[in-house]
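Fill-in record for DUF305 domain-containing protein.
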Amino acid sequence: MNLRRLSYGIGVAFALAIGISAGAQYRELQHARAQLKVLQPSEIDIGFSQSMSFHHRQAIAIAQLLLDGRPTGLAPLAQSIASSQILELGEIQGWLRLWNQTLLPPTQEMTWMLLGNEPLDEQLNQYLIACGQSAAGMPGIASSEELMQLRRLDGRARDALFLRLMLNHHQGGIPMAQFAASQAKLAVVRKIAAQMTLDQSQEIHQIQTLLAAISAPAGD
């Protein structure tokens, strides 16, 4: 009888342990699923990351064209832009790999910017019109001819062209970043978009100051 009671007790304890373990595993699974759902990107998260990957690639290329060893007083600016955007590019493309998405936009259409929670304002509407009219699908992207010209020029003329190309490039990218900073689903995407907006706005001011100085007649 004692042996039966002992066996019964062991069986109950074993079943209870299995039940507790199964319950814990179920709760962990539910928590993991909830976390995964929270981290699932929206079309805005994906579209912004793909479009900004394309955008950053050219900014890096423009900066690296200036950093070819020839004399320029703009090397610190070009190096700063290249370094910061290489880091950002690595981060956003890491997300795209995690989400099993292509690293670049599958089309030139910026339809993800139509998916916000608020109606299009006039500024955003004009930006999307400019995107549709651009050969690259977004404004501010330098043409192959402009990049070739940057390779060919020297001295002051090359520096001036670099500044104009980078100014146009930044101005064409900020509306994307501003939109994602307010409309992206994931906090990490909103955060990097807001930082891009801040950094590129500051760089625009710096570029405009340098461009005014370099464009001024000698002796002024």
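KEY FINDING: DSSP finds seven helices and no strands in the chain.
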